[in-house]
Each structure stands twice: as C-alpha cells, then as structure tokens.
Amino acid sequence: MPALGLFIAVGLAGCQSSDKSSSENKNIADKAFVEPGEYDEYYGFLSGGYSGQLSVYGIPSGRHLYTIPVFSESPTNGYGYSEETKALLNTSYGKVPWGDLHHPELSQTDGKPDGRWVFVNENNTPRIARIDLKTFRTDEIIELPNTGGNHASPFVTSNTEYVFGHSRFAIPVGDNQDVPIDSYSENFKGALSFIKVQDDGAMDIDFQILVPGYDYDLSRAGKKASSGWAFFSTYNTEEANTLLEINASKKDKDYVLAVNWKKAAEYVKQGKAETMNVEYLRNYVDSETGIAKSEIKKSVRVLDTKKVKGLVYYIPTPKSPHGLNVSPDGELIVASSKLDANVPVHSFEKMLQAIENEEFDGEVWGNPVLKYESVLAGRVENPGLGPLHTEFDGNGYAYTTNFISSNVIKWRLDDFKVVDQVDVFYSPGHLMIPGGDSGQPWGKYMLVMNKITKDRYLPTGPELFHPAQLFDISGDKMELINDFPTEAEPHYAQAIPADMVKENQVRFFKLEDNNHPYAAKSESATKVERNGNEVHVSMTSIRSHFAPDNIEGVKVGDTVYFHVTNLEQSWDVPHGFGIKGATNAQLLIMPGETLTLTWQPTKTGIYPFYCTDFCSALHQEMQGYVRVSPQGSDVPISFGTGS
Predict the structure, then answer these.
(1) Which of 19, 104, 124, 512 is most deeply packed, by most CB within 10 A?
(2) What's the rounded Cα separation, in Å, for the pair 579 and 81?
(3) Overall pTM > 0.85
C-alpha cells in the first residue's frame, strides 16, 4: 500500500506538472498566434540562398505570404521567361537563370528602415537587385565588375545614398586576367563597389575601391556617430589559394577594414579616381512600358588604395571574423570571431583617436594597421562556440548566435556581460531583430535562422527545409514562441512593421496607364499579325474567356508572341496563360498588365491553350486553340472569339 500510495502521488504530481506545462505552452503559442483574417505585425523578408529568390513571411505567425523572384527564373509566374522580365537576368556572361541570394537590406532614411525598397545580393555571379515594396517586384539588377563572390553585400548608408558590396573571392583585376592561380598574392585583389541610389531608386556604380586580395565576408555602414564610414570583416589575410580551412586559419588575427566612404566620394569628385575598362550590365524595368531593358557599361571609376591614402584603416581582429555589426548609436563595432573564444567589440571613438594619435602597428599596402588594444572597447567573454552574427534590440542589449554550441546569447552593451542564453535547434547562422541592424530597432522579436533541421519537423526524405525559430525578447529572458520551416536556405532576413508597407500596395495596374506596345486594352483591339516568321498575338483575358480564342495560320518554324493583357480592374483577379508544347513556362498576368510568352511550334496540329489560375466559376471554360500548319503552307492568318 505505501508503494501504491507513492505511485499515485507521483502520478498526480506528474499530471499536475503536465497540466501546468500545457497551460504555459498555450500562453507561449498565443504570442505568435494571428487570428484568421487578421494581419501580422511585421513583414519578414528572408533570403532564399541557392533558390535565388526572396521569401516573405508574416511575423509572428510564420505564415509564408509570397516568394519574390529575383535572380532565378520562376515558372510560378513566368518571371525570367516572359519577354518583359527576361532582360533582368542578363549579365556580361549572358543570361544567367540562377542565383545565390544571401542578404536582404531595407532602404533607410535617417538610419531607420523606411519601407521603400529592399536590396538583395547575388553571391555567385556578383549582382545587387532592388525590389519595389509597392509591388513586391524586382525593378532593377546591377552587375558588379572586378568582383568574385559578392558576399559582403548589399548594405546601405543611413539615407540610402549608397548601397555597397565587396568581393568574397579575390580575383585578378585589370587587363591581364590569365595568370597562374599561385600568383594570388601578386595579382588577386578585392574590389569594394559603392553604388549610387537615385531618388527614384535607379542604381549605378559611382566608384570602386581596390584593396588586398583577402576574403571580405560581411559588412555594415556606420550610423550616427560613425556615419560616413563602412566596416568589413575579413578572413584569409594569409592570401591562401588552396585548402583554406587550414591555410586561411594560421594567423591569430585578421582584420576589420574601416572605410571612409564619404572621403572616397569626395576624392572621386576631385578627380583622384582612375578609369578602368570593364564590362557590366545594368538591367531595369522601364517604368513606361513595364518591359525590362539592359544597359552595357564599359568603365568604372577606381580608387586604388596603394596610391590613394587616408581612405582605409585595418583593425586587427581575432580570428577569421564572420559577422560584422554596428550598434544603433554607431559607436560599437562587433566582429564575431568564429575561431576565437571571445567576441571582440571595437570602439569607433577609440578608432578615431588611434588614427589621430598614429597608434599604428604596421601597414597594408601603405595604409595603417591600428593597434588592437587601442581600438578595443572590450570582449564578450566565453559567449559559446563558433560565434557568427549579432543584432541589437535598441534597449541596451545585443544578441549573438553560436553555430557550434547551437545557442544564442544576450549581452549588455555597457559592460559586455552575458545575461541570458537559450538553446536553438540546430546550428544557427544569422539572426534578425526587426530594425536590428539600423539606428532604430523594434526590439520585440528575434528570428533565428538555423542551418540543420534533423528532427524538428516531419521528414521529407534526404532534403529538408531549414528551420527558423522566433523568440519574444521583450522581457528579461528570450522566450521561444514559434518554430517554422523556411524555403531553401535563408542566410539573413529583415523585417519592418507591416503598417509601413501594406498601405502603399499597388492592388492592380490601371489599364489607362498601360503603355505596353502590344497591349490590347479592349477585345476590339485584339489582333494577330504576321511579320515574316514572327507572329504577334495581341490578346485579352477576362472572366471567363480569351480573345481571340481561335487562331489559325501559324506554321511550323514560326516564333509566336502571345501578348496577353488582363482586362480585370479588381484586386486579386490574375489570369494565367499556358499552351501545350511550350518549352519555357506559363504566364501569370495581374489585372491591367500585359505579359508576353514566346512559343515556337515544331509540329503540325491543334494546340490548346488555357487559363492556368482558377479565376471564376467558369474557369475550366477559359480555353482556346491554335492551329499549326506545315511550314510553307498557304493557310492565312485568321482569328476570332465567339460567333
């Protein structure tokens, strides 16, 4: 009986503990729950890594709202396939249909995210794109010459005067590109690109700064106290070209590169830059026609830091630093040294004093290396294993991920003491606090993007989406409130209060403003015209038919352009267009818009086409036919809808 009594007591205690745990879990879940029909507090923009796209999530719910196609073709809506968007993927190497998107960065005004644009980088074929947050569409992509691996990118200055990026992989720069790989230290260089952003968002490279051939990993612009400067983490200061896991990890310290970009811009205006012959493309969507165009650029202005002094300073930093972050007041520069036991924190004020007092410890290319202790503000002691990235909550605290020990620490900015730590699952890379890299963080939530999924969700074979974990950081302790899978491999994210973006949305495109050269703004304006082997079909779509929906006179070997205009003038009434045998994609056309699909029939026959997006109760009836006759036949062009 005593044993039985003990068993019952333990069982009851266990039930009570379970009930309490269930109640606590419900309270936690409530913090991330967004009722059906209600909106999230924040838009979250998560990079898609090797997908080349940018994913949009609601925060705190974790709802996947949309995927913005940027550097990769998207059969979902025809991006990169339609004649209107093809040019956005042009590069000096030809059309590149894939990209590796790592870092989003919101435009800023006075150091605060402003909701106009989000910039994203492409690591593989170095490019930077600008996305318009009125339409959630890619408006412009610019290629970066003299660059390999555009990783330390695309970060903006406090008023979005510039967006900048840097080489992760040094390459030969100049006329002679064919050099032995083992001549790395002699011929390989890094190029920092400063891209001027106009009031309408248009981008072009203002100048580049040449620096040694280190690997430049991540960067941030200064703000407030450090406005006018930019900071870059470096590794491989050994300038190794093989087996970098050993040969690029020999030195006790690498560098944080401090760049006075305002002075650089002044030097360029004073004519101190050299002009270098290069080739790169600027692709942009023509605001009048909605058709993307490409400009070939043939030169860039370059400031060579071997020749031009007073622009760059090297801050010794242990060891292979990865993440690089600047505190909201612009005073502290945090370099997460992934192979060191501590996180070094540099002081901008002390950096300026060290420069003024010439507290130097050598030079690189004739530019000063500052004394480590002269610039150091302090260290975060024993943060965990493998510190990578830091963000700030605006309330005097910083948060740093540790990849190896799979945790996040919270530490004070005034004394660098760790005050909280939480485990994450598993191996976190970046973390994101809304506004956490700006001068005005919204310190309520922290999103941690983990690299290993393992047992977090239902298994999907050998390939798994990466997990994101959302924490409430409004209290003293970090509290996990949501956990959701993400598309591809998010590297970094940005978030902004939804009210700063959602009220500015374009719901549909006004037909009267459609200046596409092949737009048919009414069914009476539809036509099919032959010009040699080209056939242009100006057609319309509306619930629930195409006009024309019967087309004859197309021949094998023709190139047919279907210019489809969606006549709807209501929000959320897209129409799709797909045709049998198309070797590219389908189209998804928004109300008031014209998009073009190119089709090259190779066989005679009757080809059905149809609306690919369920648009009405008679969606299934929204279809038509194209007759394709043999090459050389005398079947004339004819078309029509109804009788």
Answers:
(1) 104
(2) 14
(3) yes
C-alpha gyration radius of the chain: 28
pLDDT digits (tens, 9 = 90+) for 404-424: 999 999 999 999 999 999 999
- The Cα–Cα gap between 365 and 261 comes to 18
Report how far residue 301's alpha carbon sits from residue 146's, in angstroms, rounded to the nearest whole number: 12
Cβ pair 219, 335 in contact under 8 A: no
Distance CA 260, CA 254 (A): 19
Q: What residues contact residue 5 under an 8 Å CB cut-off, 6+ apart?
A: none
Q: What is the pLDDT of residue 4?
A: 34
For 38-97, write each residue's pLDDT tens digit. Answer: 999 999 999 999 999 999 999 999 999 999 999 999 999 999 999 999 999 999 999 999
Q: Which residues pair with 536 in a beta bridge?
A: 529, 561
- Which DSSP string corresponds to 126-171? TEEEEEETTTTEEEEEEE-TT-EEE-S--EE-TTSSEEEEEEEE-E
* Domains of the chain and any CATH numbers: 42-274+291-504 (2.130.10.10), 513-640 (2.60.40.420)
How many CB atoms sit inside 10 A of residue 42's CB?
25
Distance, in Å, from the CA atom of 307 to the CA atom of 276, rounded to the nearest integer, reads 15
Residue 14 confidence (pLDDT) above 50 = no
| Calpha distance 436→165 (Å, rounded) | 20
Give the Cα-Cα-Cα angle 600, 605, 606 (nearest 5 degrees).
95
- Residue 137 CA to residue 487 CA, distance in Å, equals 18
Q: Report the alpha-carbon distance of residue 324 to residue 217 in Å, rounded.
A: 8
Report the C-alpha dihedral over residues 476, 477, 481, 484, rounded to 10 degrees: 120
- φ, ψ for residue 488, nearest 5 deg: 55, -130
- Which residue, 450, 217, 239, is CA-closest to 364? 239
